[in-house]
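Appendix B. Chain record.
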Amino acid sequence: MKETKKTDPRILRTRHLIRDAFVQLLQERDIEKITVNSIAERATINRVTFYLHYRDIPDMLEKMADDMIEDIVQALNRTPVDDNTRDGGYWPKMVQFIEHIAEQEEFYKVILATKRTPIFMERLLNLVTEMMEENLEKEGSSSFISKAGIPTDIAMWYVSSALFGTIIGWLRNGMPYSPHYLAKQFYQLLPGKGDKE
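Structure tokens predicted for this chain:
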């Protein structure tokens, strides 16, 4: 994980304005039809200010995806997790992950549930896969997946698809359940986990 540097609050504020403008525009039109001019206008900044932060729209998307992952990692590390618990800390991290998505509802609703912007989906998938690999390594041969003889890659494809499908459905339906409740239900659906809670 990269070291977090203290960023000037004005830079953070401008990037936040740009991100919000991009999310609003993405709700109105396809990504291919979003221009630097339209982002700058919506963010109430000028084009020069945009170019002080990003080379172009693809660079902006890359950096926004990096920021998203950094924000998630910070959210997951907010509360120390006891790795000696029977689930290797998987359950509390699941709650923290879904709570973070709820806190950033508008952003995730657009990039996951409405437009499914590929760069964000890919980065999230990579993060979830890394977390699952860590968890499976901790569980070792005692994991349900190992005992059932399921290849790790198949298990990860299955669980990550199920997680994203669940979160997307939850966002599209106006988040009818609390993050804690949703995390608990998802955790109970996992092979070999439901009987432990």
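Further analysis of this model is presented in Appendix C.
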